[in-house]
Amino acid sequence: MTVKVHRFNEEKQINTIEKFEVKKENSTVLDTLIDIKEQQDSSLTFRCGCSSGVCGSCAVRVNGVEKLACKTNINENDLIEPLKYVKVIKDLVVDLAFEKEVLTRPKAYIQKYKEEEITPKDEKLIDRQSNCILCQSCYSSCPVFEVNKDFLGPYSLSRVLRYVNDKKEHEEKEKIDLIQTNGIWDCTLCGNCTIVCPQFIDPKTDIMNLRMKSLKYGYTDPNAMSFGGGMDFGFNPNGF
Fold it and tell me: Which CATH number fits domain 98-223: 1.10.1060.10, 1.10.520.20, 1.10.10.10, 3.10.20.30?
């Protein structure tokens, strides 16, 4: 069985697609990468951790779609590539230094604790977003990053909603304030992030919920201002 793997040599700044013949069938992408490294090319570089879909470190693109390598079966002629919109360090390993920044900028954590009685209903409200494993699949699938590198992105905004909905957080409004620029209104609501999330989190819906909460605090979609009147676009009601 033939599989193709993206290779990147940082020293030479060269990208190549290399073909490997593997014997194992009905195995995962991660098993295949490990087999190639052990049996054919020890220089092949990739990340892995738990090998059970919990840590998220083995996220790659398989035929252009973000997947966890440990949970994805390998098939003939599969193309394995690194995640998009981040610097490739070597082969399938990318630089994840931005991760801390996109979580701290909107203060996606408890800022000011307040004592509250937490019910099972309260726990359920934040449970889904709490399951994020930071695999970066949603970022790689997001088309906004192609044009706006400052976009907070899907899992950052889902994490904000998790703490906005947390009864223990006293600073809900400040979090809402911090996601107005390069945040919720920049999202195209394409749903790619929701499709690729291995934890079945729905960032698209989370962002829509954050927009509704923003309206409560007096914010409006800044993009909607562009559609305030046809004459702003040179529109002529007579058709010329």
Answer: 1.10.1060.10
